[in-house]
Amino acid sequence: MSQPTTAVRPRTFGILVAALVAALLFVLLAPPASAAPPRIPSASTAQTELNQLRVAAEGTMSGYSRDLFPHWRSSGGCTTRQTVLKRDGNNVVVDSNCQPTSGTWYSQFDGVTLTSASQVDIDHFVPLAEAWRSGARTWTTTERREFANDLYWPQLIAVSASSNRSKGDQDPANWQPRAAYRCTYARIWIRVKHRWDLTVDSAEKSALQGMLNTC
Asked: How do residues 21-51 score in pLDDT, each as one tens digit?
């Protein structure tokens, strides 16, 4: 004879309670959302690429304008900024215009968790002005547009507005993120300069080597 349905209810209730507790613990204890640009090289590959970078004094800022690097481009209904916000955030919800309405973002530069897209900047890892000084001034507008909206290489990352403004257009000889992120920062910077055939000056290369040595 089958057991009455009421006989299994306490066990079922216990399973539901356990599942709810597990879910709550996951929410409370889960690591923060972590910005993760694509195709970050290993330390050994970054070392090889650093050795291959051309060393040259920084060029002039004459003629520079951010308008020469058109951004943000739209693709598939989302701008490049919105695409990075979705990629680098956690539990990101967007509206019909692809604009995030909720979510969290962990800023790797300073270790801050952000809870509103308005607090987030999309940083050009190699700043546009730095790119100009190290070779982009000779590029076409099309090439500069591709660089400013580069989602294939690790050129874009969601960070806190305050850390992005602190960095400005400085290279690693003059600005570096929190110590725990310097290995990754150097690997990304080197990858972008290598893939876009940009030069480094001697102080910049020395700073990158020091950061890479922490890996």
From this structure: 333 333 333 344 455 899 999 999 999 999 9
User: Contact at 8 Å (CB) between 212 and 43?
Assistant: yes
Length of the chain: 215
The encoded tokens of residue 128 equal 């546009």
CA 85 to mean position of chain CA atoms: 9
Distance CA 86, CA 94 (A): 8
Q: Say if residues 144 and 159 touch (Cβ distance below 8 Å).
A: no
Alpha carbon separation from 155 to 14, 37, 48 (Å, rounded): 49, 7, 19
Two tokens at 185? 């920062």
> CA-to-CA distance for 202 and 11, rounded, in angstroms?
69
Q: Tell me how far apart the alpha carbons of residues 73 and 182 are, in angstroms, rounded to a whole number.
A: 29
| Residue for token pair 């987030």 | 120
User: Strand locations in the chain, DSSP E?
Assistant: 74-75, 78-79, 89-94, 100-107, 112-114, 120-124, 156-160
CA distances from 64 to 59, 130, 131, 135 (A): 11, 10, 10, 12
Strand partners, 55: 200
- Cβ-based burial of 83 (10 A; exposed 0-12, middle 13-18, buried ≥19): buried
Determine the Cα–Cα distance for residues 56 and 134; give it in Å rounded to an integer: 8
Query: Rounded distance, CA 212 to CA 204, Å?
Result: 12
- pLDDT digit string, tens, across residues 55-84: 999 999 999 999 999 999 998 899 999 999
